[in-house]
Design goal:
The complex is a heterodimer of chains A (292) and B (533).
Chain A lengths: L16 E6 L2 E4 L5 H20 L18 H25 L2 H6 L1 H18 L1 H4 L23 H10 L25 H14 L6 H14 L1 H4 L25 H9 L10 H18 L5
Antiparallel strand pairs in A: 1-2
Chain B lengths: L46 H19 L16 E4 L4 E4 L2 E3 L5 H21 L2 H6 L1 H17 L2 H9 L4 H26 L5 H9 L5 H21 L1 H7 L2 H8 L5 E5 L1 H4 L6 H6 L12 H5 L19 H13 L6 E5 H11 L34 H4 L2 H23 L3 E7 L6 E2 L5 E11 L5 E8 L5 E4 L4 E4 L1 E6 L3 E11 L7 E11 L5 E10 L5
Helix pairs in contact in B: 1-4, 2-17, 4-6, 4-8, 6-8
The chains are: A mainly alpha (292), B alpha+beta (533).
């Protein structure tokens, strides 16, 4: 502890120096600017008030609540409520309108497409993909193939009640027999039908087997898939004559599907998401490019 | 010698007034930690002061009044001549309308402003600082107010020294009130450039305007009041980088405010008597008028210095004294360093190496018998202004201006942007054809609605459709875009199975105005499954 007499004072400025000396160069120990100091004191006073007003001091299991009682959770809840309130008029309008009205009203349509888009990302993209591009077993919603129909009402029913969802009484239901495992057809017959199905969609096939398969198809398959394999949206029977395949277009996959068909399941969303959200999803899916 | 002489000498100084003033940066007083010396500039009058009054009136007039000029652009566009419409991302300047993507015009104008500053500085020195810089103009305006309430230099000094009284308080209050009012008007004018001035003015005074309007006015009121009323010359000396930059811009051919010591020295308060007695004296009578009028508080006779903003008020003050004394004007004048050096060489001791010392000046060398300046003295003239460097700057400045004007005349008023869908990249349809989706944005930058024909070029068999906009599949789509608007359309391009080329193929969207007019072509990609799929 040096007393005042020991302090190094710069002769030129009259200001105390730090005492450090580098080859004769010393450093002034200038006091902090007054404004800086006062600002610093002001922040200290502010922080005390802040600690009292807001939750601040961490305790073992929680933290002090502060006199304001503000929590982030409450702020978020209020903000969400405000957003919901702001959207309420247009959401009510969507619930009350039929799809024709929504499609014709530019504001409703844009709101529904945007809202449907974000709902799709949250609830649907896990199976159908974020661009609704699908994958084998999960239909591509951009194209013009609809197993259960592609107009807005059909899409709405599919989303609201799902497909083969046992929890929903109005769910869409179709089941193709296990032609192979239930021994409804022999292996040879299944091979013939497979060749015929390949022929239907204009792919490479064995003409002899296909001719034989045509008879078997007419007897076993045409009741659902139609005489020309054109399918039926009413029964959920896919079109077999087009270029797109639900599970895949190779001979093995088609044969396997005849022998022991796979049946995809889509949950019913009507109760979980509510009328307004299902309608928005419907408009969005319909707008992707394949809507009828 | 000088100290022993009486302050009011009968011969020379009867004609003029001497000021007890010292430059704030005089060598004797120069310290590292000096407090600010308050400067009380005296009112000057003369040619340059008159010019500055005019420039002040014009620049302040432009600043305060421009937002109120109206310019008819039709019913859908604002009718304010100069408007920076941030909310709608448009900049209006009389007949010019600039969209954000055309910001290069603003960049070009900024570059021109930079070159203009180079041009002016290399020619006239710090003419920007001395005449047109907002700091100078507003300080001038604030000084007018100060002079109105508190009087000229001597009265102000007296008032400063006087104890507080009712009259002093009244003067001070009035001065600061008017200063604040000017600051408020300055901040107020600024916000009118960003919104419709008449309606914003009403909103502002009825408390309806946006918070940013009030905060902007508050900040600009404060800065104008503090910079113009209180900080003044400190802004130029300590805050502004230009005094430092000017060193790179000035050369020995640049005009600067110069004290011509080759005719002023040796200075004497008794020039006439000394001359009668045969003692050689210069023209400077050491009246300090040049220091008294200086708004920067410096002594120009110390030479060119960074504090000097070349406002030329010392020239006016000195010319007035010279006229009273019957001497030639121009003891302080706009001169180039080259002319000054030549004249110094003429006046100083011949044969000396290096700079001519002031002490060696012999006024007899630059004056003839009758007291007129000799013919060999270099004067400022057109040759000081027109020289290769200034011509080069002027040419570059003009070329940039022409280039911007040409670009403005030829710029597109139609722009098309195309964004390919990322997910899915392509969609295979039931008939085997391939469909790609695009967001097509058409910008109609004119003030009238236009219909464009959108077509596909270079993609055989392709048809386009925009079902969301009610456009059925076909060879072309007709799209009407509202005036001064962007229209975004989701376009599907479909290529039949027998025309599909695996992988990516290039093609072009062509938008052309129906009925002739502008057209635009944009490159785009069409994606199809690769060969092996």
């Amino acid at each position: 502890m040096a007393d005042k007499a020991d302090k190094n004072v710069d002769a030129f400025t009259g200001i105390e120096t730090t005492g450090h000396n580098w080859d004769g160069i010393t450093e002034l120990n200038s006091p902090l600017p007054r404004w800086w100091l006062w600002t610093f004191y002001a922040t200290i006073i502010f922080s005390i008030g802040y600690m009292i007003y807001y939750p601040a001091v961490p305790l073992i299991e929680s933290a002090t609540r502060g006199v304001s009682g503000i929590t982030n959770r409450q702020i978020v809840a209020e903000e969400l409520a405000a957003v919901r309130a702001a959207k309420a008029p247009i959401v009510d309008k969507i619930v009350a309108s039929d799809f024709e009205t929504i499609a014709a009203d530019d504001e409703l349509f844009r709101f529904a497409v945007a809202g449907g888009n974000s709902l799709f990302k949250v609830h649907c993209s896990q199976c159908h993909g974020s661009g609704a591009q699908g994958s084998p077993g999960y239909p591509n919603l951009n194209d013009d193939v609809w197993i259960w129909g592609g107009d807005m009402d059909a899409i709405y029913t599919t989303i609201a009640h799902g497909i083969r969802d046992e929890a929903d009484d109005d769910t869409r239901w179709s089941e193709m027999p296990n032609f192979g495992t239930d021994e409804l057809l022999t292996g040879e017959e299944i091979a013939s039908v497979t060749q015929f199905v390949l022929q239907l969609s204009g792919r490479d096939h064995d003409a002899v087997q296909a001719t034989a398969g045509a008879v078997i198809f007419e007897e076993n398959c045409a009741s659902c898939h139609g005489d020309a394999g054109e399918g039926s949206a009413e029964d959920g029977a896919p079109n077999l004559a087009d270029a797109l395949w639900h599970y895949g277009d190779s001979e093995e996959i088609i044969r396997a599907q005849i022998a022991q068909p796979r049946h995809g399941v889509m949950p019913a969303w009507g109760e979980r998401l509510g009328e307004a959200n299902v309608k928005q999803l419907t408009v969005y899916v319909h707008s992707l490019g394949g809507g009828e | 010698m000088l100290e022993t002489m009486p302050k009011q000498a009968p011969d020379t100084l009867a004609a003029t007034e001497t000021y007890d003033v010292e430059a704030v940066n005089s060598k004797e007083r120069r310290e590292f930690y000096a407090a600010r010396q308050k400067i009380h500039p005296k009112r000057a009058s003369g040619r340059f002061r008159l010019l500055k009054w005019w420039i002040m009136a014009i620049t302040l007039g432009i600043y305060y009044l421009t937002p109120w000029i109206r310019w008819d652009r039709g019913p859908l566009a604002p009718d304010q001549a100069v408007l920076i419409d941030l909310a709608n991302r448009r900049f209006y300047f009389f007949f010019i309308e600039i969209w954000p993507q055309e910001f290069y015009f603003v960049a070009g104008m900024l570059v021109m402003a930079g070159i203009g500053l180079f041009l002016v500085t290399s020619t006239f020195g710090r003419a920007w600082c001395g005449y047109t810089c907002p700091q100078t103009v507003w300080v001038d305006l604030y000084l007018v107010v100060e002079r109105f309430f508190e009087g000229d230099r001597n009265q102000r000094i007296k008032l400063d020294a006087a104890p507080m009284s009712a009259s002093k308080l009244a003067k001070r209050t009035a001065k600061h009130a008017v200063w604040l009012l000017i600051g408020f008007a300055t901040g107020g004018a600024w916000i009118f450039y960003f919104a419709d001035a008449p309606s914003l003015a009403v909103d502002f005074f009825t408390g309806q305007a946006a918070f940013v309007a009030y905060s902007t006015v508050a900040i600009l009121t404060a800065t104008t009041y503090i910079f113009g009323g209180h900080m003044r010359e400190q802004v130029c000396t300590y805050m502004c980088p230009w005094p430092r930059i000017q060193a790179a811009m000035l050369d020995e051919h640049s005009l600067t405010v110069t004290y011509n010591d080759w005719r002023g020295e040796p200075r004497s308060r008794h020039a006439k008597r000394m001359r009668r007695e045969g003692v050689a004296t210069g023209d400077c009578v050491d009246c300090n008028a040049c220091v008294a009028v200086c708004p920067m508080g410096i002594d120009i006779r110390d030479g060119q210095q960074l504090e000097c903003i070349t406002c030329a008020l010392c020239i006016d003050a000195c010319d007035g004294v010279m006229e009273k004394l019957g001497f030639e004007r121009g003891l302080i004048s706009y001169a180039t360093l080259k002319d000054y050096n030549a004249n110094m060489a003429l006046a100083g001791a011949a044969g000396g190496a290096g700079a001519v010392q002031t002490e060696s000046i012999d006024p007899g060398r630059v004056r003839d018998e009758s007291g007129r300046l000799v013919g060999g003295v270099a004067h400022t003239g057109l040759h000081s202004i027109i020289r290769p460097r200034t011509i080069l700057y002027a040419v570059v400045y003009a070329l940039m201006g022409i280039a911007l004007l040409v670009a403005l005349g030829l710029r597109d008023r139609l722009d098309v942007n195309v964004l390919h869908d990322r997910n899915p990249v392509f969609v295979k349809l039931s008939d085997g054809s391939i469909r790609n989706g695009y967001q097509v944005k058409i910008l109609n930058m004119l003030g009238r609605a236009r219909t464009f024909r959108l077509e596909i070029e270079g993609l055989p068999g392709a048809i386009l459709a925009a079902p969301q906009d009610g456009i059925d599949p076909g060879e072309e789509a007709r799209l009407t875009v509202d005036p001064d608007k962007l229209r975004q359309v989701r376009v599907f391009v479909q290529v039949p199975a027998d025309h599909v080329v695996p992988g990516a193929s290039d093609f072009r969207f062509v938008a052309s105005e129906v009925g002739g007019g502008e057209s635009a072509t944009v490159e785009a990609n069409f994606e199809a499954p690769a060969e092996d799929r």
